Target: Major Facilitator Superfamily protein
Amino acid sequence: MSSLTSHRPSLVFLAITLLTFLAASSAPTPLYHLYQQHLDFSAGMLTLIFGVYALSLLAALLTVGSLSDYLGRKPVIFAALILEMLAMLLFINESSVAWLIVARTLQGFATGMATAVLGAALLDTDHEQGPLINSLAPLLGMACGAMGCSLLVEFAPFPTQLIYWVLFGAMLLQALLVLRLPETVSPIAGALASLWPTLHVPAQARRALWIALPVDIAVWAMGGFYLSLAPSLVRAATGSTSNLIGGGLVAVLTVSGALMIYGLRHRAADKVLRLGAMLLALGVALILGAVHTASLPLFFVATLIAGSGFGAGFLGAVRSVVPLAQPHERAGLMSAFYVLSYLAFCIPSLLAGTLTRTFGLIATTDGYGASLIVLALSALMVLLLQDCTRSRATSSR
Model:
């Protein structure tokens, strides 16, 4: 039996479990306007509810992100699933803004724990497919969560509960199946010391991380804005009240990103990074055009292009950095990478939510979009200059 065949069941299980966590992370997005109507809170409070998820996720990455390097992958995956199931029960029983904040906080911590350990376990299981799945699963998961929730809200009963029951059932099954998962790491001493907040980037990966970081920041900042405010933005700009629009936009953003990742999986990382920066700048510019022309079709076209930039930028960053780690460094490096990514995911969107109180949603979107375009184009110029420098150095030898 080939190595790939023998590892396939574990690879599939790990990929589906990672996809489930990310689906749960985006499931609340189509429900935000229902929560706003029911609980009567502002766009600023909405981004706070979104932001505590990301901040809690960061706390998990900083504390328990490397824990599976010491305890093994299986117990940490199991613990993350139990925490996520508790979060689903909190969502099902929500009755106030405070309840939502607690649910999102617990969910963020569980997702942060799961993202690091599942990412490392995927790399342990398959060095070739692991980085690709680490790039694809988050985007496909967010698409499934947002679109699946939108469909249930539009066509099924119990709109603020049913999606969480579905996810709870899936996680319960995964918690049972993880007991049969082969362990890929032998436990070692140092687990308690590893809980001290640190960012561990191996020396051999640091230069690659700094080069990829500007594009990674730009794509995640755009993703955070979309997952928190896109449904509200479309309603404000076009007047659409369909429950499918918000989830549809998130699905287009993430599926186009996933398709771009798959299509570019064999391309050189530096070329993929450059393409991601270009597509992101173009897509965001078109999104701003859609806002000011109140064009729903243009919203979807622009989101398709921006999502392609998201996928290319994310893939380029992952492939530039993650393969440089040694086996015992993988969970720590994945944690550090996602800490930086999720800081870009939550802090700009929290700032945008605060600014909407003063300037309004449309004006805030204009400023946010212009900042992303400048960042993406600046990153593109740095990458092109680096390529020119490398070419001159090669030709002079």
Notes: The chain has one domain: 3-182+200-395. The chain has 15 helices and no strands. The chain has a mean pLDDT of 85. The two ends are 47 Å apart (CA to CA).
